[in-house]
Write a structure and sequence with these properties.
This protein is of the alpha+beta class. It has 7 helices and 8 strands, in the order ααααββββαββαββα. It starts with 6 loop residues before the first helix and ends in a 14-residue tail after the last helix.
């Protein structure tokens, strides 16, 4: 008993208790600090009106970075050789990065999209050979929906490597209607009639006003194009009303709409 409670043993136990207490204190303080940093970074990004997904991403990165630092500092205080541990963590990170380089590329592209905002949720865009309404902008992929109720998931890396056409950046979208009429008409008159008919249609904006132009001389018709603008969320029904207004107006004006005919001669 005397040997157990010798001054040397008591000194050793005291040093061990202090070391364990220090290690636990460093880890607990680091864990609490990581939580505080997470809230601090998240709040800062929210005040800057950064996308929520991006704010949470950076807040988590800051939290885990501080937590890893606290763990390494705790192990170092406990007498563990941390140099080799840090090297192992770096090697593991490199291996994971190489294995997930495609996903990490999409992640980096997602961060860029959320930072620079070439489009927002609700915009109609064309990119990577697809066109649709943006339903979600994630860190790894962007989701589009089409009028056919299709859900298109595009990796963010494909978007940043391709051109992006934002059809609704200005809040308006232009539609193009093609109309064919019979040969022999007055071109200027047809252009005037088409523009007036388009302007009378539902959802068509008066500014900018519809424009009609002579486009092509086809085999059996003179083809015209009508450009008209609407709010971005009603372009599809607007095209219906424009075509109906044009058809009715051409009939009123006596302007013939040609159609293919098949004539059969009996031998």
């Amino acid at each position: 008993m005397f040997d157990v409670l010798s001054p040397e043993r008591l000194t050793h136990l005291s040093e061990l208790a202090i070391r364990v207490g220090t290690v636990l204190a460093i880890f607990i303080l680091g864990w609490l600090a990581s939580k505080w940093v997470h809230r601090l970074v998240l709040g800062a990004f929210r005040r800057g009106k950064v996308e929520e997904a991006l704010a949470r991403f950076f807040a988590s990165i800051a939290q885990y970075a501080l937590l890893v630092f606290a763990v390494i500092a705790s192990l170092d205080k406990a007498g563990v050789e941390t140099t080799s541990l840090a090297a192992a963590i770096a090697a593991a990170g490199l291996a994971v990065g190489l294995a997930l380089q495609g996903s990490l590329g999409n992640l980096a592209s997602g961060v860029l999209l959320l930072l620079f905002r070439p489009f927002s949720i609700g915009d109609k865009i064309s990119t990577s050979g697809h066109r649709g309404k943006v339903e979600d902008i994630g860190l790894f992929a962007t989701v589009l929906s089409t009028p056919a109720i299709e859900r298109i998931i595009i990796p963010n890396g494909s978007i940043t490597r391709d051109s992006i056409i934002n059809h609704t950046a200005s809040g308006k979208i232009r539609s193009t209607i093609t109309v064919g009429v019979a040969y022999g008409v007055d071109i200027d008159r047809v252009c005037k009639v088409l523009a007036e008919a388009a302007l009378s249609a539902k959802f068509v904006l008066a500014e900018p006003a519809p424009i009609a132009g002579f486009a092509d001389m086809a085999a059996s018709s003179l083809n015209f194009v009508v450009f008209c603008w609407s709010e971005s969320d009603v372009d599809v029904p607007m095209q219906h009303y424009v075509r109906r207004a044009i058809y009715n107006r051409l009939n009123e004006e006596g302007i013939e709409i040609p159609f293919d005919q098949l004539v059969v001669h009996k031998g």
